[in-house]
Amino acid sequence: MMVDVSVIVISWNTRALLEQCLRSVYGTAGDLVVEVIVVDNGSTDGSVEMVRERFPQARLMVNRENVGFARANNQAMAVAQGRYFLLLNSDAVLRPGALKAMVDLMGADPRVGIAGGRLMNPDGSFQASFMDFPTLWAEILLMIKLHPLLRSPYFPSYPPAESEEVREADWVPGACMLVRREVWKEVGGLDETYFMYSEEVDWCWRVGRAGWRIYYTPEAEIVHWGGQSIGQVPLERRARVYRGKWLFFHRRGGRRTAGLFRLALVATTALKMGLWALLMAAPVRAVRDRARRNLRSYRRLLSAVGKGAG
User: Fold this and answer.
1) CB atoms within 10 A of CB 65
2) Rounded mean pLDDT of 299-304?
3) Burial environment of residue 265 by CB neighbours within 10 A (0 to 12, 13 to 18, 19 or more)
4) If DSSP codes are grouped into helix, strand and coil, which group holds residue 32?
5) Of 209, 230, 251, which one is at a domain's C-terminal end?
6) How far apart are CA 33 and CA 26, in angstroms?
């Protein structure tokens, strides 16, 4: 029997959420023929044992260490049998009809190579589900907390907070993205230079350059907890976010753009460190302790980003 969708889930120490994720996949597949491929990146919380015991029908691939989001997904796509590949985070849950909505969108337009759905927080509020490609100036505004300006007339290309209509986008988050098999064959998989973060941005950039279109549909609803794996190590997460952005600018904007991004990051971080250093003289001990922690965090962040971008 032809497999409609190969659902690929990468896991790293998210046992409880992974179980919810897999139950949602099997519970909402409907008439679609799905295969589930779980790639575990060296979990130590019993995730592997849980999958073997409760989801024996899933294909389980076990890495001894965390090889990163891109490489793990590539491992799964290399053996996947489906007409479409669904990359789904282990901390995401499909709502009824979500998978069908994305498949229907793909089926209606053969030019669509990647589709994403409406990502929501557990409380039902909207998460950013479709974006334009990052620009240097937009990233600088984000660094200095002036990102509300991105929704001003000065940045007309910045996407709205939410959309009730199917629409084209530059890229959709890798938390839940449906990819046509032909796209993978033509463009290749995720760039493994990205360990985590911005790899889907780069992939969508390459897919678009190859002539495929990328779409968002609000009919596909996905609850996404967000950052539950790497969220256990906040500093590591921030460093990898910036490392991924720097790499994207370096690959797609050139050394000058990447250098300006790094300079802006160092400058804004140094400014924040200066402000916290002033608070080291505060009369309240709690404020001094917080300042000390933040200064230590910023120093380590600069060190980590510097090593990664060097």
Assistant:
1) 7
2) 72
3) buried
4) coil
5) 230
6) 10
User: Which residues make Cβ contacts (< 8 Å) with residue 2, sequence separation at least 6?
Assistant: 33, 83
pLDDT tens sequence across 235-267: 566 777 778 888 888 888 788 888 888 888 888
Asked if 171 and 124 sit in the same domain, the reply is: yes
Can you give the CATH number for the domain in which 203 is found? 3.90.550.10
CB 215 within 8 A of CB 117: no
pLDDT tens readout for residues 164-191: 899 999 999 999 999 999 999 999 999 8
Q: What is the mean pLDDT of residues 83-91?
A: 98
Cβ proximity of 115 and 216 under 8 Å: yes
Q: What is the pLDDT of residue 72?
A: 97
175-207 as b/e: b if 16+ CB within 10 A: bbbbbbeebbeebebbbeebbbbbbbbbbbbbb
Tokens standing for 145? 């907390």
Indicate the pairing of strand 167-168 with strand 213-224.
antiparallel
Whether residue 157 sits in one domain with residue 23:
yes
Give every CB contact of residue 206 below 8 A, 6+ residues apart in sequence: 187, 188
Q: pLDDT tens across 208-218, in order?
A: 999 999 999 99
Is the Cα torsion angle 91, 44, 9, 50 positive or negative in sign? negative
Tokens 């300042």 — which residue? 291
Query: Looking up tokens 């007409």, which residue turns up?
Result: 83
Residue (of 189, 165, 166, 44) closest to 115 by Cα position: 166
Domain assignment of residue 23, given as a range:
5-230
The confidence band for 4, taking pLDDT boundaries of 50, 70 and 90, is: very high
